[in-house]
Design a protein that fits this description.
single chain, globular, about 350 residues, about 50% helix, Glutaredoxin, alpha/beta, 7 strands, two-stranded antiparallel sheet, 5-stranded mixed sheet
């Protein structure tokens, strides 16, 4: 596996991942749970070609997850023996554990690699992966920040690793409510490679997003995919995730199980999602949300990147999310993974303690 981390500042049709661990997964589809239906897939009846293709895509994804889970189990056994390629085995195990979101295992493998192979050519990538892992473990945020700073200090001419570390550090600071710290960290990215237009654009976009925190989201009044009126105003008093995504977007699909789990856990407590799809194929879009049980409101106009609401928000990469608090203000931008659930829970708990708020 190529462990070179994708540059955190890359602006592409499918977006970069916010952490080093997720960066190595960019473009990988989400792995949903196995279908509950007992009927073999080849004997099922499908309403459309896209529904059939989606079913087989899900089956392949599940098979891949099952295979990777077995591979990790085998690596654990392999690493207990007397082996000559332990460095490569530890790196591979860390990658797979992060991919499967088995954070405790990923932490063990990453820390063991750092201890035993500190002079390895892969050490910066491993430390980036370890720092990303730590952001998913309670009480380890400060350790993650220190590790990101260590990567920056040790990167030398490896600007790619330094940029990845700074980008991920900025995300960690935002998750810790240190908005000013995140802003300064983005400035450090621009200063690291002065005159690099792509990075300057990335930094400007990120800092502009920070300026939106605490502001009211841009209003829109459209019809949802079911033909019903859709606006953010109707959800005031709720915690709302405005989610820009598409069925063809690998990182969007990778994040989807977490989004669905968060919705199921907190919907009855006052959490809502408004999806904005950048798809062009309406049937594929409808088949997808049906197969995944995405029951929240969705806006689809078939215009892809020129989607009406997407253009309004200036979306240039997906997934892109805006978490809106019960007062109707933007609270966070770009939340993913367990940070989404933790933040939603905190906002709902805060609202429950305030008698003036009614989720």
């Amino acid at each position: 596996m190529n462990r070179r981390v994708v540059a955190a500042f890359a602006l592409a049709i499918v977006p970069f991942a916010a952490t080093a661990a997720n960066a190595r997964q960019a473009g990988k589809a989400a792995v949903p749970a196995k279908p509950a239906a007992a009927t073999p897939i080849e004997k099922r009846t499908f309403a459309s070609l896209s529904e059939l293709q989606q079913a087989y895509s899900d089956e392949r994804d599940q098979a891949q997850k099952d295979s990777r889970t077995k591979e990790l189990a085998s690596l654990k056994v392999y690493l207990k023996g007397k082996i000559e390629d332990k460095e490569k085995a530890l790196a591979a195990a860390q990658d797979i554990a992060n991919e499967l979101e088995q954070w405790a295992d990923a932490k063990v493998f990453g820390e063991q690699f750092v201890t035993e192979f500190g002079s390895s050519k892969q050490i910066l990538d491993v430390k980036l992966g370890l720092a990303a892992t730590l952001t998913h473990i309670d009480g380890k945020t400060e350790d993650a920040k220190k590790l990101y700073e260590e990567v920056v200090d040790k990167a030398g001419d490896d600007k790619n690793s330094a940029l990845n570390a700074l980008g991920s550090l900025a995300e960690a600071l935002m998750a810790a409510d240190d908005i000013e710290g995140a802003r300064k960290t983005y400035d450090r990215m621009a200063a690291l490679v002065p005159g690099a237009q792509q990075i300057e654009q990335f930094v400007a976009q990120k800092k502009a997003s920070l300026e939106m925190i605490g502001e009211e989201p841009k209003a829109f009044d459209v019809k949802d995919a079911a033909g019903q009126p859709l606006s953010l105003a109707k959800y005031k008093g709720k915690v709302v995730l405005l989610d820009f995504w598409a069925t063809w977007c690998g990182p969007c699909r990778a994040e989807l199980p977490n989004v669905i789990a968060t919705y199921k856990k907190y919907h009855d407590k006052g959490f809502e999602i408004v999806g904005v799809s950048l798809d062009e194929d309406e049937q594929a879009f409808k088949d997808f949300i049906k197969s995944k049980g995405m029951t929240w409101s969705q806006f689809f106009d078939g215009k892809g990147w020129k989607n009406e609401v997407s253009v309004l928000y200036g979306v240039q990469s997906i997934p892109q999310t805006y978490l809106i608090d019960t007062s109707g203000k933007i609270y966070r931008i770009g939340l993913r993974g367990d940070a989404l659930g933790r933040t939603v829970n905190a906002l709902l708990a805060k609202s429950a303690k305030d008698p003036t708020k009614k989720p």
